[in-house]
Specification:
- This protein is an all-alpha fold.
- 74% of the residues lie in helices and 0% in strands.
């Protein structure tokens, strides 16, 4: 019971803090910035706000009314439609493939540690986070090593990356067929915690939908709107990062 009260206090504190930061941020944005207020009345801004509201409503309908795994399928469908309409679906899918590859690499590396520890995994999200972290660290080390020896050109990196991911997937399938991969998770949620999450599902679904709307707002303008980041980084040649031998090569842009 004490654990439930602590969770309730943390959720209330985080919600109040989020609302306070939003109000403070809105005050500094609107205070004395008449140009920003005028731009809100542009037709493009109105269309954007209407689209965001409709998107939020669609996400909340999926979260509240679809049963079980249907929530995930419904939200995924809505997200993919929005990304496709804003010409960002292919870049996101490509990044998702890289993410999947890093997760599989981390899964293979952490397999033996998890086998010794047993089935002590609290959630799938936590496990994926561990896999991604380990996979990312190992991949970064790989890039650093081949760059150190001066063989880190883009063609080599692409071929090696594809090979590493394919080998990692093959090992994962091998471990799975041998039934030594700890696929299942321990369900550590108690009945009281389940009841607490169910009673506060409105707040949980609300913030999930809000977070997705903000992320989709940023993703939706990547290939349409021009801003400082897209101009400063997107228009730079790839050889700024790697001129043919790796990330340590001196390309003469700094004195």
């Amino acid at each position: 019971m004490e654990r439930i009260h602590n969770q309730r206090g943390w959720i209330s504190l985080l919600s109040i803090s989020a609302i306070a930061f939003t109000l403070v941020g809105a005050y500094f944005v609107f205070d004395g910035n008449l140009g920003f207020i005028e731009r809100l009345y542009d037709q493009a801004s109105i269309n954007m706000l209407v689209e965001l509201v409709l998107l939020f409503i669609c996400l909340e309908l999926c979260l509240f009314f679809l049963p079980g795994s249907g929530k995930i399928y419904g939200v995924t469908f809505v997200v993919m439609v929005v990304l496709w309409l804003h010409q960002a679906l292919l870049p996101i899918l490509t990044a998702g493939l890289y993410f999947f590859g890093l997760v599989v690499i981390g899964e293979d590396i952490l397999l033996f540690y998890r086998k010794e520890e047993g089935w002590k995994t609290s959630s799938g999200m936590l496990r994926i986070s561990h896999d991604f972290l380990v996979g990312s660290v190992l991949y970064i080390l790989f890039i650093c090593v081949i760059s150190l020896f001066g063989i880190g050109e883009y063609r080599v990196i692409r071929i090696c990356t594809l090979g590493i991911i394919v080998v990692a997937i093959l090992f994962y399938l091998l471990f799975s067929n041998a039934r030594i991969t700890p696929i299942h998770f321990v369900n550590v949620l108690e009945d009281r915690e389940r009841e607490f999450l169910y009673r506060h599902r409105f707040l949980f679904y609300f913030w999930i939908g809000f977070i997705l709307v903000i992320l989709l707002l940023q993703a939706g303008r990547m290939n349409i709107a021009l801003d400082y980041d897209s101009l400063h980084y997107g228009l730079r040649t790839k050889f700024i990062l790697n001129n043919g031998r790796g990330i340590y090569e001196k390309i003469g842009v700094c004195q």
